[in-house]
Predict the structure.
Amino acid sequence: MKTILGLVASARRMGNCETIIKAVCRGIRQEHRLKLLRLTDFDIKPCRACYMCLFEDKNCPIDDDLEQILDAIGTADAIILACPAYFLAPHSSLKRFVDRGLSFYSRAGQLWEKPALGIGVAGIKHMEGHTLLGIENFLKVLLAKVKAVEMFYGALPGEILLEEGNLQKAHELGRALFGPLPQPAQPSCPVCGGTTFRFLDHGRVRCMLCSNNGKIDFSDGKVGFDMQQSPRVLFLNRAKALEHKQWLIGMKNDFALKKKALIKAAGQYRQDGTWIKPKEKKISE
Ligand SMILES: Cc1cc2nc3c(=O)[nH]c(=O)nc-3n(C[C@H](O)[C@H](O)[C@H](O)COP(=O)(O)O)c2cc1C
């Protein structure tokens, strides 16, 4: 029996994200149980950049729900993430979680290549902005094996089910979860499979998912990419991901060596400006 974890990145109960995950699961051929986790129900605090979680004998000092979510992901056989578009971008609960990604390295064994689907939901057709990029980023930083990433459209809660063809599309996604990796349907980065690019000078492009640079090529009437892989790789293979962790640990040591010079250089700016602090909250009876 497979355990599927549905990660809902929307606070709306019985909304489109929740419903589409359930519909996708009905297409899964393997015997399975569906567990659901609403990211917005959990307390995920901002990363403090202390790098403690990188060290074997230390843990993240932040007292919140990160470990509980990582346990749920780590023990699932596959994950389905559904996230709404908010202001042409993914819901903030994705970024809040991904920003704690330095803690994922210590769980690389559990997380590596977990089959995953990413689903974006937007209320207006083609008004998702960079929602899918945020979803791909979330799944890649989580070291998952991304089987498919798709957009669905519907504004009212459950409205995506009213559009003809969506249910079939959902069931096909369900079948893809434990199936072979499909061929890319659109021009994509040959390094990471990303489909979002920034145009640079001299016909060069940068993939917004893996951040590698390359050339765009329009020969044969098709769009192609010739990308150069940088030596610094965050998630493309397990060894490289762990190499990046070691590099970060080295940076922590580098900081100890350069600390005096850094304090001297930046210290002269310490007193500039005045800080606006949050008002104290009144505690109601
Ligand atoms: C604050 C807010 C911002 C939104 N921004 C967008 C947007 O930029 N583009 C879009 O197509 N839909 C936008 N929507 C609509 C939602 O993406 C849409 O209703 C979606 O179905 C919500 O998923 P849910 O039902 O799982 O919450 C926005 C909704 C809210 C509440």
